[in-house]
Specification:
- There is one protein chain.
- By secondary structure, the chain is an alpha/beta fold.
- The protein has one domain: Alpha-Beta Barrel (TIM Barrel).
- It is built from twelve helices and eight strands.
- It has an eight-stranded parallel sheet with strand order 1-8-7-6-5-4-3-2.
- Helix 6 packs parallel to helix 7, helix 7 crosses helix 8 and helix 11 packs across helix 12.
- It is globular and about 50 Å long.
- The model has no long low-confidence stretch (mean pLDDT 97).
- Bound molecules: 3-hydroxy-3-methylglutaryl-coenzyme A and magnesium ion.
- It holds the Pfam family HMGL-like.
- It catalyses: (3S)-3-hydroxy-3-methylglutaryl-CoA = acetoacetate + acetyl-CoA.
- One of its GO terms (molecular function) is hydroxymethylglutaryl-CoA lyase activity.
Length: 299
């Protein structure tokens, strides 16, 4: 395979990046973050999560976020919806794209969404059907594709099986989550090869957390295989509340720098993106985990 000529970035900072923050973040700050990301050229922004506020308190203002954001033409603002209750709430706010999230690990599925993998697929089926009826696209996540905090090693065949089930259900894209950032490049390639036998490469996205500092190397490996959609988080914000010790997603700034170096088009203004990373980390009192962001700010 060859590198893609163009890559679409899915910015998950406002959701994955912020969901784990213990201190409440003002809705106005989230809205400004989303707006700045749009101004930097991101065309797909995961803005909120319609999950239980008891489980993830930081996402409790999902309604205010989805109704308050300034919609820019050509930008998709999506939200997580684990069940019909979440989907109905998202639809009521005018959400045009949603995502369901499953896992390749039974133990993680139980901890994260309180049901088995099979039960999760049963729950997603009516979400897909209702979304289709409403003309809303659904993205499917698979967590723990390169390892699980509870089960350890995960078989690529299991990742492929869950990915295929989500595709068959109607998800337009499958995002492969290295939830705890334990993967390494060859492992990422092998996992991808197994999944790509069941799901066309054009429908796959890489969602790599950077816990062990391997995310950029892993992305290079899967880009070489033809993956053309990458999830990332400005300033490398984030972590999953049900994956202890997991750090943020790969930083969007670092991904854009990598793509620029490879001559791959992303349509993103790196300076604006880096300024957004500097701003949000100062606003919420977090270190900037984008190496490129820190380097550009020091110039
Ligand atoms: P449950 O307890 O099994 O569900 O939770 P339930 O149907 O029995 O409902 C229990 C309570 O939750 C009820 O309220 C429901 O109304 C409420 P009560 O009667 O106790 O007051 N409830 C809801 N409230 C708001 N919105 C909803 C909703 N559904 C039920 N949609 C549930 C099941 C999935 C809701 C729960 O487990 C949950 O919210 N989990 C949160 C999971 C989460 O957000 N995890 C982080 C995101 S996933 C991630 O980060 C990984 C990813 O980035 C990829 C990667 O990195 O690998 C995507
Ligand atoms: Mg994630």
């Amino acid at each position: 395979m060859a590198f893609p000529t163009q890559v679409r970035l899915v910015e998950v900072g406002p959701r994955d990046g912020l969901q784990n923050e213990a201190e409440p973040i003002a809705t106005a700050t989230k809205l400004e973050l989303i707006d700045r990301l749009g101004a930097a050229g991101l065309t797909h922004i995961e803005a909120a999560s319609f999950v239980s506020p008891k489980w993830v308190p930081q996402m409790a203002d999902h309604r205010e976020v989805m109704t308050g954001l300034k919609r820019r033409p050509g930008v998709v603002y999506s939200a997580l919806t684990p069940n019909l209750k979440g989907l109905e709430a998202a639809l009521a706010c005018g959400t045009k794209e949603v995502a369901v999230f499953g896992a390749a690990s039974e133990a993680f599925s139980q901890k994260n969404i309180n049901c088995s993998v099979a039960e999760s697929l049963e729950r997603f089926a009516p979400v897909l059907a209702r979304a289709q009826e409403a003309g809303v696209r659904v993205r499917g996540y698979v967590s723990c594709v390169l390892g699980c905090p509870y089960e350890g090693e995960i078989a690529p065949a299991k990742v492929a099986e869950v990915s295929k089930a989500l595709l068959d259900m109607g998800c337009y894209e499958i995002s492969l989550g290295d939830t705890i950032g334990v993967g390494t490049p060859l492992k990422a390639k092998r996992m991808l090869e197994a999944v790509a036998r069941e799901v066309p490469m054009a429908k796959l996205a890489a969602h790599f957390h950077d816990t062990y500092g391997q995310a950029i190397a892993n992305l290079y490996a899967v880009l070489e295989e033809g993956v053309a959609v990458i999830d990332s988080s400005v300033a490398g914000l984030g972590g999953c509340p049900y994956a202890k010790g997991a750090s943020g997603n790969v930083a969007s700034e670092d991904v854009v720098y990598l793509l620029n170096g490879l001559g791959i088009e992303s349509g993103i203004d790196l300076d604006k993106l880096a300024a957004t990373g500097t701003w949000i980390t100062q606003a919420i009192g977090r270190p900037n985990r984008a190496k490129v962001g820190v380097a550009l700010a020091a110039k």
